Amino acid sequence: MLKHWYQAKKPHKITGKPTSSRTENQEPGTVIKKYDAIVAGAGPAGLTAAYFMARDGLDVLVLERGPYAGAKSCGGVSIMAEHVHKLFPNFWEECQCERIITDQSYWWMTEDSVLSTRFQSVRHAAAPYNRFSVKRSNLYNWLANKAAEAGAQVLFKHTVTEVLFNDGQAVGVAVNGGSSKYLADVIILADGVNALLAERSGLAAPVAPENISLYVKETIALPSSVIEDRFNLPSGQGAIIGLIGYPTAGFNGTGSIHTFRDSININVGMSVANFAQAGFNPNDLLERIKKHPHIKTIIAGGQTIEYGGSLIPEGGYYAVPKLVHPGLMIVGDAGSLVNGTHGINLAMWSGFYSAKAVYAAKTSRDYSVRKLSLYTELLNESFIMQDLKANAGVAKLTRDLPYAFDLYSRMANETAYQISRVYTMPKRAKRIMIYKKVTSMQPALKILSDAWKALKVIR
């Protein structure tokens, strides 16, 4: 059993001076410092890996193409407090969080109505809390500072363009088109959803359009008191609303609303394959959702302060590539380690597990697949892969039932409307009328068939 690796406690530091080396790709006589590990990408996965490796005494280099951590990100997200707390105890005392999430809702929407489920609890307002809303740039910068303080070297404006191999073993990376080369015993690819480095190296196939979703986001500034009034929130607490149905114009996809201290973030998206089929611009979905009568009242008087997009891997368990190669591991979004609303927390834990594998490899001076496979053993033993495997059929289900989100949102709203409306007819006649209306939208046997398919994949 490997349970002891779950603990983020500090092991004995590995000591020893870094070495220098040269590969056959370098100019003769050129000597470059060799690191214990190089991390390509300064996102949550890569920076978490860098922090724990550096904290444990390894010589770590992080290379990031942006001018600072989070430069490519937009808006904010929610992070799962318990997951992050186990890695970085009491992180909310250091990281700039926006609001403590105590209010969580889902809206099943049509063009003129909303059927919602809502849960509020003061228990979520007590440490170690449940979720926080955070700005991505603040989270990434905090992690970058943590990694640097632990001893990792973090270089920005350094785009890793190639992984260097020697007899099939990853030994380094080329940066900025080959203008610089850096060597290491282990390379960790944390370059995000497109996973271009793994693809260029022949370690993974290109990400399929149906397995990647494009989300467009807008951050709208509003006074803190206005946000708390409109969402009925106590001071300092926040809400998250999941949006289903109407926002994605008949296609399976989702949207959400996140509350921050003095702004709210609206995002909406669906698979790249669906966008290609639909033929409309992603921004059209955002403008569509902002015009909904129930959204208009929330954002009234607000000012747009940020706009952008992001890609999210949503292929699920079967889209996860081989994560361990000789001298190399793939973490976070680059490894398609996203499960519904769980993305950043899974990325951070994958970074942590990869760091443990590098530490074990360093102590034994063995960087083979066999030794680095501790990373996948830890992943498989954890909630990450167990949950991904349990939900393995979800991606296929959404493709098999492309109408599900829109149609069943309409059916749910029509049922709620008819139930809430008062007629001058007997209740039995009203129930029959509602049944006929609903089954005219989808036959009863087809409803049962779709429900059975859903039950088989949601375990």
Compute the gyration radius: what is it?
Answer: 24 Å
Please tell me what the overall shape is: globular
Sheet with the most strands?
9 strands, mixed
Number of helices: 16
Q: In percent, how much strand structure appears in the residues?
A: 25-35%
- Report the strand count: 18
Category from helices, strands and their pairing: alpha+beta
Uncertain spans = 1-7, 14-31
Q: What's the helical proportion of residues? A: 25-40%
Distance between the termini: 25 Å
- pLDDT averaged residue by residue: 90
What can be said about this structure in brief?
The protein is α+β, with helices and mostly antiparallel strands and 459 residues long. The protein has helices at residues 44-55, 81-87, 136-150, 196-200, 224-230, 272-278, 282-290, 293-299, 344-364, 369-372, 374-381, 383-390, 394-400, 404-420, 427-441, 444-457; strands at residues 19-21, 32-40, 60-63, 76-80, 97-109, 114-120, 131-135, 153-155, 160-166, 169-175, 180-189, 212-221, 237-245, 253-259, 263-271, 303-313, 324-325, 328-330. The strands form 2 sheets. Strands 1, 2, 3, 8, 9, 10, 11, 17 and 18 form a 9-stranded mixed beta sheet that branches. Strands 4, 5, 6, 7, 12, 13, 14, 15 and 16 form a 9-stranded mixed beta sheet that branches.
